[in-house]
Amino acid sequence: MNAVRWQCDLRASRSARALNVTLSLLCTGLLLALEWPDAWAWSKAPVLVLLLAECWRNERRLVQRVGHLGLDVKGNWLWRGVRWRAERKADWLPYGVLLVLRNQQGKRWRLWLMHDNLPPGEWRTLRACCFLRDGQTLP
User: Fold this and answer.
1) Residue 134: what pLDDT?
2) How confident is the model at residue 108, as a pLDDT?
3) Which of 55, 79, 92, 108 is the most exposed place for a label (fewest CB within 10 A)?
4) What is the DSSP letter of 35?
5) How far apart are CA 78 and CA 89, in angstroms?
6) Cα angle at 44 between 39 and 48, to 5 degrees?
7) In the prediction, which pLDDT does 72 show?
8) Statement to judge: residues 82 and 53 lie in one domain
9) How far lies 35's CA from each of 11, 44, 60, 108, in Å?
């Protein structure tokens, strides 16, 4: 077993959840505000139901992305008891990072970590671990 270089308990991102609800409400408002031809007027309801179902599905997935996440000294990620390796370098944005991971069975997973998924100190430590491991300087 490798020594853990960084670890944290992730929580649901409030900003991602708020963005999901906001975009869904905007799309719903746009759908209701548009004038559709009379022959298509019946199709607004199924489209609205699909839109709301997608919002609910995304909300549920965001809430499920909680748990223990760790990074060992060899650069392997540990998520929910499964070891994952990074397929490529992490893509950093000011408020989030995209990790593209693959496990030993070949399953690929994209994990967006938003800055509010973790406590502020853990966010800074994660950035330092990733940038210093890659030999870069912190932006």
Assistant:
1) 56
2) 92
3) 108
4) -
5) 16
6) 165
7) 87
8) no
9) 41, 10, 32, 42
Question: Cα–Cα distance between 51 and 43 in angstroms, integer?
Answer: 12
**Vertex 66: Cα angle to 54 and 106 (nearest 5):** 80
Extract the tokens encoding 119: 């406590």
CA distance 7 to 80: 12
DSSP per-residue letters across 75-134: SEEEETTEEEEESS--EEETTEEEEEEEETT--EEEEEEEGGGS-HHHHHHHHHHHHHHT
In whole angstroms, what is the distance from residue 96 CA to residue 65 CA?
A: 14
What pLDDT is attached to residue 29?
92
Same domain, 40 and 80: no
Cα–Cα distance, 47 to 109 (Å, whole number): 29
Do 25 and 47 sit in the same domain of this protein?
yes
Domain match, 37 and 80 both: no
